[in-house]
Amino acid sequence: MAEDTFRRLLVVVCDLSPIWWGKQAANASENSDKMQPINAFLNNVLVFCNAHLMMKHTNELAIVCATSSKSQFIYPCPEDVSDANGEESYGNMDGKYEHFATMNNVVVDKVKNIIEEESADDVNLPENSATLLAGALSMTLCYIRQAERNCPVGQSMKARILVLKGSQDVSTQYMATMNCIFAAQKNNVTIDSCLLMSDSGFLQQASDITGGVYFKITKMESLLQYLLWMFLPDPNTRESLVMPGAVQIDYRAACFCHRTLVDIGFVCSVCLSIYCQLLPRCHTCQTRFKLPSAAMTRPKKKKKEKTAD
């Protein structure tokens, strides 16, 4: 079958911002919840990843975690080069498929290490620290490109990205994030966005430009249901499903001078850099602009009065 010539790669980008998840843990303790939000989130993500691998034997998976200080792959592990699936570090477990059990154990251990490292550095982080989304997307696109090159002869790779994000956007990452979005569009990589209780203007544009799905979850208890319903089917299968309607997209851009989102700005006619105020020279390409000058009005000549001879 023609469908057997495709290998479907799903890369999941998880937001592990210590500040955001710390706030969720504080709210859970006030509500006397038995399970920590990060544990429930991780369990739901692992079930979703296992479901993706079960859909077809040629399906592939990668998981990237982004924090306020770094972005790194947690599956497959870079150090497990000798074994492509990292299966030599973990044995088989009763009642579980060996590949799933290995993947679950690797992800849980890696996330635990990341949280411990970030918790130790949490005291030095400012309150408005942003998740390094652009760095995670850059790593993901590089991994997808490498996977396409290593694809077996006679097969082709269909890759997509799922971003699970809860922290707020920061305008300083606008340019780097938009570069990743346009790179994904050029390489036909779909970016799906699952927002946890808050919207993201960056990911709204990412999903709209690349043809992905954008959805905000208002209750964490329903995360798994939405993951299996909306983000498990591939883009071709979604055409036969009734998906949620389109959301109003925030297309505001960040100015290159102060990195703030602007509704109305000034655009360089040479390099298309955006500024929030009119400047005599572009900071990016050094083009000089002709500033509008006030119109000079010439004084009217007084008419000479005719004198009678």
Automatic annotation (TrEMBL):
Biological process annotations from GO: nucleotide-excision repair; regulation of DNA-templated transcription
Main location per the UniProt record: nucleus
Cellular compartments per GO CC: transcription factor TFIIH core complex; transcription factor TFIIH holo complex
Keywords tagged on the record: DNA damage, DNA repair, Metal-binding, Nucleus, Transcription, Transcription regulation, Zinc, Zinc-finger
InterPro entries listed in its UniProt record: TFIIH_Tfb4/GTF2H3 (IPR004600), vWFA_dom_sf (IPR036465)
Molecular function terms, GO-annotated: zinc ion binding
Entry keyword annotation includes Transcription: yes
Compartment(s) where it occurs, according to its Swiss-Prot or TrEMBL record: Nucleus
Subunit composition and interactions: Part of a TFIID-containing RNA polymerase II pre-initiation complex that is composed of TBP and at least GTF2A1, GTF2A2, GTF2E1, GTF2E2, GTF2F1, GTF2H2, GTF2H3, GTF2H4, GTF2H5, GTF2B, TCEA1, ERCC2, ERCC3, TAF1, TAF2, TAF3, TAF4, TAF5, TAF6, TAF7, TAF8, TAF9, TAF10, TAF11, TAF12 and TAF13. Component of the 7-subunit TFIIH core complex composed of XPB/ERCC3, XPD/ERCC2, GTF2H1, GTF2H2, GTF2H3, GTF2H4 and GTF2H5, which is active in NER.
Family stated for the protein in its record: Belongs to the TFB4 family.
Role noted for this protein: Component of the general transcription and DNA repair factor IIH (TFIIH) core complex, which is involved in general and transcription-coupled nucleotide excision repair (NER) of damaged DNA and, when complexed to CAK, in RNA transcription by RNA polymerase II. In NER, TFIIH acts by opening DNA around the lesion to allow the excision of the damaged oligonucleotide and its replacement by a new DNA fragment. In transcription, TFIIH has an essential role in transcription initiation.
Name of the molecule in the record: General transcription factor IIH subunit 3
